[in-house]
Amino acid sequence: MTTEVQGPAGLRAGPREWLGLFVLTLPTILLALDATVLNLAVPHLSADLDPSSTQLLWTVDIYGFMIAGFLVTMGTLGDRIGRRRLLMIGAFGFGLASVLAALSTGPEMLIAARALLGVTGATLMPSTLALISNMFRDPRQRGVAIGVWVTCFSVGTAVGPVLGGALLQWFWWGSVFLLAVPVMLVLLVTAPLLLPEHKDARASRIDLVSVALSLLTVLPVIYGIKRLAEHGVDALAYGTILAGVVLGVAFVLRQRRLADPLLDLRLFGNRAFSAALLVLLLGLGLMGGLYLFITQYLQLVGGLSPVEAGVWLLPAAAALIVASSLTPAITRRVRPGYVLGGALFLSALGYALIAQVDSVGGLPLLVTGFVLIYTGISPMMVLGTDLVVGSAPPDKAGSAAAMSETGMEFGIALGIAALGSVVTAAYRSGIGAALPEGLPASVADGARDTLAGAVAVAGDLPGPEAAQVVEQAREAFTSGLNLAGAIASAIVAVLAVAAMVLLRHVPSGGADEAG
Predict the structure, then answer these.
(1) Contact between 132 and 142 (Cβ < 8 Å)
(2) What is the rounded (10 degree) CA torsion for 118, 408, 11, 394?
(3) Closest CA to 151 of 306, 327, 298
(4) Fewer Cβ in 10 A, N or C end of the chain?
(5) Is residue 393 classed as helix, strand or coil in its secondary structure?
(6) Which of 254, 196, 289, 291 is nearest to 72 (CA)?
(7) pLDDT (tens digit, 9 = 90+) per residue, 9-50?
(8) Which 3 state secondary structure label does DSSP give 25?
(9) What are phi and psi of 35, to 5 degrees?
(10) Cα atoms in the 13 Å half-sphere on the side-chain side of 197
(11) Where are the alpha helices (DSSP H) in 331-362?
């Protein structure tokens, strides 16, 4: 068993830092709330705004795509202008964008508001993580602080479905976005009092060409993936993906030439940093992709109200909270690679259970599988984030935190696009030949588009035909969910082995020791 090394006494945080940590958890809780309540609101905004399947997917994942595109820029910007200043600018912008989203009158306006939420949200998470890294220099205290940070994300995940379900039960769908306004106001008032300012005094002006290249790398690739999911084999999709890859190579070459790059590629020379990013990208991507369809299963297949769906999600959120709280203590005695590997194997078992869920009476098995997934996700979030942030020097804390968040947000957005295409393809294949003959073309097209569309058009059909359409749609959707669960289980099992191999050199002391 390895011994734990504590940092010098002069680096230990005091009461002000721990109070400041409370302020830093506010945007963490908010972003978790925002993600979960939107998934619950999908059936309601679909009924009100009538988005197409493409618009619905863009509504859900444009937020994550914009965050992924701007995180590197915002993390480096925080290193230059000050991480507290950037946090406050982002908090104001996020609150304003939340109001615009709540008042949206059509799918296009909602997508635009969600894009603005993504741009401003990209300022929040790297700023909070960078400030935690600066405020808690002692490795043990930093591990505890990041554990608290992840636990608060878990609390937001737990409270989000219940609070969002209650709002959806009593108010219109836009009310879920207004949750951000009071939280951002509290942050704006308390941040100047409790948070110190940190920035890299040696940093030069930000390179705008690198900013443009980073965006032109991410967004074409994302567009191409989404177009492939919607249209299948498509020359435009392959062309945009190739263009993004080429521009990505240009971005990397430019960073290697710059004396003060937008993204310091030397960070990837640390194996713990690179391996942790890979785990965060794939692990959270698969979970985020499946979460959207689990919430739809609860409401559209299980027939639960938003509040009831939120209650059924509470056991998984509780498991996330408990596991996040226990992870720092466990890793004092067990190497992070082994903790991550074991946790990921547990998640793989949960995904395997999801692959066995039936369209009738499948709620208990679904919830059990989701509890196992969330229990395994917690150590990945705590340890992965700590390894990424702890591997970087203090003046690069913003860039490292941005890379950690980029891995998570880009992974979640990509997971939604990839697994969404799997579920959608399986759904359309399953329902195509199962619809009753003689249905009007508009009704048949609506039923083939999405499960929510099938439920909506069934309301205008006679009783027997309506029941048949809904039953076939639920079975087709469940088949897609089963396939997505099986794919996720296989990938996560491989990822568990990779985590144990790539991180076996990291001792229980964490990233500081590994360096």
Answers:
(1) yes
(2) -70
(3) 327
(4) N
(5) coil
(6) 254
(7) 446 767 778 888 888 888 877 777 766 667 667 777 777 777
(8) helix
(9) -70, -45
(10) 9
(11) 336-354
